[in-house]
Amino acid sequence: MKICYIYHSETGTTRGVVDRCLAATGGDRTEVQDLQHYSRISKYLVGAGRAAKGLSDPIEPAEIDVSGCDLLVIGSPVWSGKPTPAINAAIRALKGCEGKKSTLFVTCGGSARDALTLMKTALEGRGVNVAASVPFTRKDLRDEGKVKDLIKQIQAAGSG
């Protein structure tokens, strides 16, 4: 089973979850770069508003070919209760995703609110089967058991 991790990480938190999962499962990684280059202030003033509206930002890579993968693991920070504009763009940029399985996760301060549901809906609209969705709050990130649960979800999705 070939796993592709696709994620956006402004502060390194989401990347940290990916690093821990990759160490356990192996796979390829694609870190999506938001070409808006938000500053700490504009991330809240502009980026969060764009996330709240479900908008996309220009990203690098502009196209993400996942045709050689069996399982997609997609991770995003939560801005205004939604996935980031970079992850919205990444989901639209997927090539060869039809019929693939996916596991989703988000990192957030307190509540994931609509982020996972919106990501799931967007992926299902692209023909991706979402097997699991896992939110990580600040508290969850300190709990190694929660990351191990995500790893188990990834392994189960890949074997089923």
Q: How would you sum up this structure, described in words?
A:
The chain is globular and about 40 Å long. The strands form 3 sheets. Strands 1, 2, 6, 7, 9 and 10 form a 6-stranded mixed beta sheet that branches. Strands 3-4 form a two-stranded antiparallel sheet. A two-stranded parallel ribbon has the order 5-8. The longest helix is centred in the C-terminal third of the chain and has 16 residues. With 160 residues, the chain is α/β, with parallel strands linked by helices. The chain has a single domain, classed as 3-Layer(aba) Sandwich (Rossmann fold), CATH 3.40.50.360. Helix 1 crosses helix 6. It is built from 6 helices and 10 strands. The protein is 41% helix and 27% strand.
Helix content: 40-55%
Give the class-level CATH name.
Alpha Beta
CATH topology: Rossmann fold
> Any guess at the CATH architecture?
3-Layer(aba) Sandwich
